[in-house]
Specification:
Chain A is built from ten helices and 27 strands. Chain A is an alpha/beta fold. Among the domains of chain A are: about 140 residues, 3-Layer(bba) Sandwich (FAD/NAD(P)-binding domain); about 140 residues, 3-Layer(bba) Sandwich (FAD/NAD(P)-binding domain). Chain A has a six-stranded mixed beta sheet with strand order 5-2-1-9-21-20, covered by helices on one side. In chain A, strands 13-12-11-17 form a four-stranded parallel beta sheet. Chain A has a three-stranded antiparallel beta sheet with strand order 6-7-8, with no helix packed on it. In chain A, strand 6 and strand 7 form a beta hairpin. Chain A is globular, with a radius of gyration of 24 Å. The first copy, chain A, starts with 7 loop residues before the first strand and ends in a 45-residue tail after the last helix.
C-alpha cells in the first residue's frame, strides 16, 4: 500500500442517490474520497412532492451528507463544481481546482423549460428543498388570496391550478393537490369552497405517465379524474405568464402554475467536451466510464446508457446501482483487474397518484394499480429512506395525515402583501354578501361565568 | 339577539398565544370574529431556538392559524395590520380598511438593536420561522466554511460564535450551540475540530438571565461554562460587522454573530396615539382596555401593565391568560355587565440552558435548577404545545436527539458560493499538511468480489 501523500484521490461530484452509494462503497477502500455537493444534504427526492403539498417537512426527507458519509477516508465539502478539465484532471469549483485521479460525476438532472427559461418564474419546478418550499408557499398563498378576494371571477382564478406535464412529478402534485383541496382544507375556509378548486393537468403527449404501459396510464388517468383532476392530454403549452397559460390559442386563467415537465441533465455535462445525448446526458461505456477516459465515470440521471435497446430510466434505484458498480470498478482498477460492464436489473417502478392509489410494474412483467400498487409504493419508499430517524418521522407524518386527512406543515413564512388582493371587509356591502358563507345560524349567546 | 347583518364585529390582530386564546374563547359567542395575521401559522416561539440549532423542523412547532380556529363565526385572514384609526374604528391593513366594533391587539414584540438597526444584517435575531432558518443556515455554513478554509487564523474566525444578550434566547442558543459543537458535529468533520469552537455569550448587565433570582443566574452561568460557553457579563457591545464585534475597544473576530438582546413592541402600537412605555408597549387599564377606549384591548407582549409594583412578564402564559380574560370582558360588555380587572397568576417560569439543565421558579417561591428544572421545563413545553401532532412529532425529534446526541435537521438550502472560502485541495501542498487530519492508517484494501 502506498503512503498517505500519494493515496489515490477519488473525487465524487454530487451527493444524490448515485454519488452517495459510490462514496459509501469506497469508505474502506485504500483511497482518499472527496465528495462535493453544492447543498449540504442528501434529498430523498421521490417524496419531495409531499413537502410541496404540506404533508412532510423538508427535514423528514433529507439527511446531512457528512452525517451519512462518516468513513475517515472521506472528506465532504460544500462546493459547487463548475467544470471539469479532463486533460489536467481537475474539477473546477467555486473554491478553486480540485485534482483527481479518478472522478465520479453524479450531478443529476434539473428541469427544462423547452427553450423557454422565462417561464421558470411563473411555473416553478420541483428539484430542491427550496423549490418545494416555493411551491408550498404558492399553493397556500393562493387559498389565502382567494379568501381575501372580493371579485368572484378573480377568486376563481386563485382557485385554478395548472400543472404542466403528466410525468411522475406532475401526477403526484396534481393528486396531492386534489386531496388537499377536497379533504384537508375545506373546513378551514369561510368565504371560499376549496373543494371547488380546478386542478388542470396538461400533457403534450397522448397519455399520462407515458413511460408506463398504456393500460396503466389509462387507470392512472381515471384515478386522477376520480380525485377531481381535469386531465388534458395532447395539450401542448405555448405560453406561461403570471395569470395563466396558453394551450395553443386557448387561454386558461390561473394564478398558480406548476412545472412537472422536461428534464435536462446538469449543465456540468457540457463542460466535459464529450458526446451527449439529446437531453444533455453524457454517453457512457458499459463500464460507466466516459469513452476514452477510464478515470472518469458518470452515473445516475447524468449518464446516458442504452441497454437491450432501451435507455436506462432516470430513477433512484438505477442511480444507486450505478454508484455501487462504479465503486466496484474503481477497486478493480486499483487491483489491476479489468472493469466489469454494468447491467441494470429492473426490479420495478411505481408512480403514486393519490392517497391510496398508484400504478407500478414489477420485474418488467407484473402490473399493479390502485391500492395494492400504493401499498407497495409505500413499503418501498419507507424501506429506501436513508437513515433511521427519517423513516420513523415520515411514518409518523404519514400516519397522522391518514388518520386526520390533513397535511399540517402549512407554512407561509415570507411576507406577500404585494401579491395579495384587497380584503372584502368582514361587514361587506350588500351586493357581494352572496359570496360569503353565512355565519352560524344556531350559535347561541354563552352565559358569562 | 341581533340579525347577522349587524352582528358585533370583533377584530383580533395577531395569531400568537394571546390572540389565539382570545379568538378561541369567542368561538361560540354571538359575535363575528376576524383574526388577522401576516403569517398563516401560529408559532410555538419558546422552542424556536431548537429550529435555529437544527434539532426541530419548523413544522414541528407551528400550526396553521385557520386550522386552530375553525369555529364558524371566525374568519381568518392573511393580512398585515399597518395602523389603527381609533376615531373611525378601523384597522388599516395591506388589503384595505377593516372596521371593528371591538378590537384586540396582540401583535407582540420584535427584537430591538438599541438604536443600531444596521447591526440587524450582521447579527440576526430570533422571532420568526425565517429568522430561525437564517440562523440555522449561518451556523451550519460556518462549519462548512471552516472545513474548506485553508488559513488557520480564518478557520478560527469561522469557529468563533458570538451571541449578544444573555436573556432566555441568548442562553438557549449558546447552550444548544455548545452541545452541537461538542457532541453532534465533531465526527462529521475531517479538517476541523468543532469541539474547539469558541462560543462567547456577551451580556451588558452584571448577570445572565437577570429576571431570575441571583442564585439561579449564578447556577445558569456555571452550567453554561461547563457546556463550553465563555460567558462575559458587564460586556456592552459597541459595534457589529460581518467579521466580528467590538466590546468597548476590544475587538472579537467572529464570522457568526447572533442577536438575543433587546425586545421592542410591535410598531403597530405607535400608530394608536396613546401612551406607551419605554419599550413601546401600550399602557393598558387593569381591564386590558386602552384608557378611554373600552372597545380596544391590548394583550400579550404588546401590553404594558404593572401589577403589585412589577411589570407583567412578556411570556406565553401571561399572554394566554390575557387572551382568555379579554374574551371574558368582551362577553361581559355584550351582556351589559361591568368588565373585570385582570390578575396574572404567576405559576412560574423556566429558562433552559442546555441538554438536561435549566433553571426555574415555581409560584414565585420554589427555585429549581439542573436536571429537575429541565425535566419540568420539558413537561411544561410538551403540555402547552398546541395540537396533537406537534406534541408527538416534537417528542419524537427530542427522543431521537437524546438517543443519538445529534440534531439532524441540518439543512442549508440556498447557495452560498459568495460567502465560502477557497478550498484547500484534497492533496494539499506540503506546508499546510498539518491542518489536515491524517487519513486512516489502518485501512486495508478490500478484496473485490
Amino acid at each position: 500500500m502506498k503512503g498517505n501523500r500519494t493515496r489515490h484521490q477519488v473525487v465524487i461530484v454530487g451527493g444524490g442517490f448515485g454519488g452517495l452509494q459510490a462514496a459509501r462503497r469506497l469508505g474502506r477502500a485504500p483511497v482518499d474520497v472527496t465528495v462535493l455537493d453544492r447543498y449540504n444534504h442528501h434529498l430523498f427526492q421521490p417524496l419531495l412532492y409531499q413537502v410541496a403539498t404540506a404533508i412532510l417537512s423538508p427535514g423528514d426527507i433529507s439527511a446531512p451528507i457528512r452525517g451519512v458519509l462518516r468513513s475517515r477516508n472521506t472528506l465532504v465539502l460544500l462546493a459547487e463544481a463548475r467544470s471539469v478539465d479532463l486533460a489536467r484532471k481537475v474539477v473546477v469549483s467555486d473554491g478553486g481546482e480540485i485534482p483527481y485521479d479518478t472522478l465520479v460525476l453524479a450531478t443529476g438532472a434539473t428541469h427544462s423549460y423547452f427553450g423557454h427559461p422565462e417561464w421558470a418564474r411563473f411555473a416553478p419546478g420541483l428539484k430542491t428543498v427550496d423549490d418545494a418550499r416555493e411551491i408550498r408557499e404558492r399553493l397556500l398563498l393562493a387559498f389565502e388570496a382567494a379568501e381575501r378576494e372580493p371579485l368572484p371571477e378573480v377568486q376563481r382564478e386563485w382557485l385554478t391550478f395548472v400543472i404542466i406535464g403528466a410525468g411522475p412529478t406532475g401526477v403526484e402534485l396534481a393528486g396531492a393537490l386534489a386531496y388537499m383541496t377536497r379533504h384537508s382544507l375545506p373546513r378551514d375556509f369561510r368565504r371560499v369552497d376549496t373543494s371547488k378548486a380546478r386542478i388542470l393537468l396538461l400533457e403534450g403527449l397522448p397519455r399520462v405517465l407515458s413511460t408506463y404501459p398504456e393500460e396503466l396510464s389509462l387507470k392512472a388517468r381515471k384515478d386522477l379524474e376520480k380525485l377531481g383532476v381535469e386531465v388534458h392530454t395532447g395539450s401542448m403549452v405555448t405560453g406561461v405568464d403570471d395569470q395563466g397559460v396558453y394551450v395553443g390559442d386557448t387561454r386558461i386563467q390561473a394564478r398558480t402554475v406548476l412545472w412537472g415537465a422536461g428534464v435536462a441533465a446538469s449543465p456540468l455535462a457540457r463542460t466535459l467536451g464529450v458526446p451527449l445525448d439529446k437531453a444533455g446526458r453524457v454517453k457512457v461505456e458499459p463500464t460507466l466510464a466516459i469513452p476514452g477516459h477510464e478515470d472518469v465515470f458518470v452515473i445516475g440521471d447524468l449518464a446516458s446508457l442504452v441497454q437491450d435497446g432501451k435507455p436506462l430510466p432516470g430513477i433512484a434505484p438505477a442511480a444507486m446501482e450505478m454508484g455501487r458498480h462504479v465503486a466496484k470498478n474503481i477497486r478493480r482498477q486499483l487491483a489491476g483487474q479489468p472493469m466489469a460492464p454494468f447491467r441494470y436489473k429492473d426490479k420495478g417502478s411505481f408512480a403514486v397518484i393519490g392517497r391510496g392509489t398508484a400504478i407500478g410494474v414489477l420485474y418488467g412483467r407484473f402490473r399493479l394499480s390502485g391500492k395494492p400498487a400504493w401499498a407497495m409504493w409505500l413499503g418501498i419508499h419507507i424501506t429506501f429512506l436513508i437513515g433511521f430517524r427519517n423513516k420513523l418521522a415520515v411514518l409518523f407524518d404519514w400516519a397522522y395525515t391518514f388518520l386526520t386527512g390533513r397535511g399540517d406543515v402549512r407554512l407561509i413564512t415570507s411576507l406577500h402583501a404585494d401579491k395579495l388582493p384587497p380584503i372584502l371587509p368582514p361587514r361587506p356591502p350588500e351586493k357581494v354578501e352572496a359570496v360569503r358563507v353565512a355565519p352560524v345560524p344556531g350559535s347561541e349567546p354563552i352565559p358569562v361565568h
